[in-house]
Amino acid sequence: MTTPQHICIAGGGTAGWMTAAALANRLPHSHYRITLVESAQIGTVGVGESTIPHIRQFNSALGITEDEFIAATSATCKLGIEFTDWGKVGESYIHPFGELGKPLAGIEFHHLWQAASLQGLDVPIESFSVAAVAARQRKFSPPHASREHLLSTYTYAYHLDASAYARFLRDYAEQRQVIRVEAQIREVKRDHEGGPITALSLDNGEQISADWFIDCTGFRSLLIGDYSQAEFIDWSEWLKTNRAVVLPCEKDGPSRPYTKAMARDAGWQWQIPLQHRIGNGYVYCSDYISDEEAEHTLRSTLPGEALADVRFLDFKAGCRKQLWVQNCVAIGLSAGFLEPLESTSIFLIQMGIAKFLEHLPGTHNDAARNQYNRELTEQYQVIRDFIILHYYLTQRHDTPFWRDCQAMTLPDSLTELILAFRDSGLVDKKQYGLWPAVCIGQHLHPKQVDSRVAAIPPQQLIGMLNQLKSDIAAQVATLPNMDDYLSSLVAQTPLQKSGMRAGGQV
């Protein structure tokens, strides 16, 4: 009988317990056993999370139903992100989840909108997104099952309590034979320098040997950084923010089915609405503002009464050159950090887990490691470029921070994408996010109208778009308010149904 391979996960929190839950779900117990080492003495970053729609695929793959997930994590549904004061002060736009309008004969909708706007249509492009229109009205319902229906043209994610999600997944994983060890790591052992990790020595005297080690130790990067010496690629020349001050507050009324990202003098401020509170944070660059000024800005703009003391976080944008070294794989913040502007943190955890599972049959060979490192690094870079785009496209000149963002030299990869959109509205299918919503929202319009649109008479085109706008408004009017949807969902789902416990800290 084959001896099961041992996978040791270093660190808990969202990354550790997502990894443990996914591996326990996907890997046969006869072939693999899983241990997770964490210490309650070491805090997690978890300040509340805004996610993108891929989290629904992750939960579904684990057999987690939406009702039990929402009940356990105090989650609300999310249709997109509202960006306020990013293009010009006083303006806002929504980056929605789903489609903008409807394509026509293979012509992407933003080309149709651009041509109609030049011919006299005076309607914001977000008016043609079901997700954006519903978000503005605080309405929500899952998309329609029929792809022919207008209410099928969007998708959604969640705002969630990250600590509660980690607790939820811990229970899930432990019920599936994952062993949790409460301890701190004192030493990472190898047979020789530069060789694979053989064991972790813990402060409780225990030593854990394993075939695989997953580094989920967060910014400490205890395994991949300190011991594997994986080089960190610094991206702070483009993503200048390096600090955040966070503070939860009371709710200010009905929940919004979108995240707010409000540009400030030296960065931006988030508001993430959960069922029981609002998560708030100011992400800023310490070269342009002091901690005291940042805290004052955050406190003075809270939508409700503060519920805790402020916390400050340090970070640096970047990514490990190698996320998989020997038998050690970094997942989560130990692999890299991109600020939460586009809510990609949990998505990148998912990507790391999914690719590790894909390549695990390749055992310890170089080809599997090289492909994993290439694919994950590319994903980090694609998202990096999309986040930089928001800063670079600003038309603000009112503070040194925003003037410097406008003046920075871009990565070549992003320069090419911007030129392609500016010249003719071209969008690479591999690009992250809904580029037309962000580009047009921040006043980057294609110089040329797609030649295929010229065959449509102007009044016919404008009439089509006005009718689509009316149809979307009529369909959104039939949707319930999000709080009503959540109340009905949670009321039907006693938490104990799933065997998950509430409360406690990870």
Automatic annotation (TrEMBL):
GO terms of molecular function: monooxygenase activity; nucleotide binding
Amino-acid positions noted as binding 7-chloro-L-tryptophan in the UniProt annotation, renumbered to this chain: 78
Keyword tags: FAD, Flavoprotein, Nucleotide-binding
Residues at the catalytic site: 78
Residues binding L-tryptophan, per UniProt: 342, 346
Signal peptide stretch: none
UniProt key word rRNA processing: no
UniProt entry tagged with the keyword Nucleotide-binding: yes
Top-level taxon in the UniProt lineage: Bacteria
Binding annotation for FAD: 12-15, 333
Protein name: Tryptophan halogenase
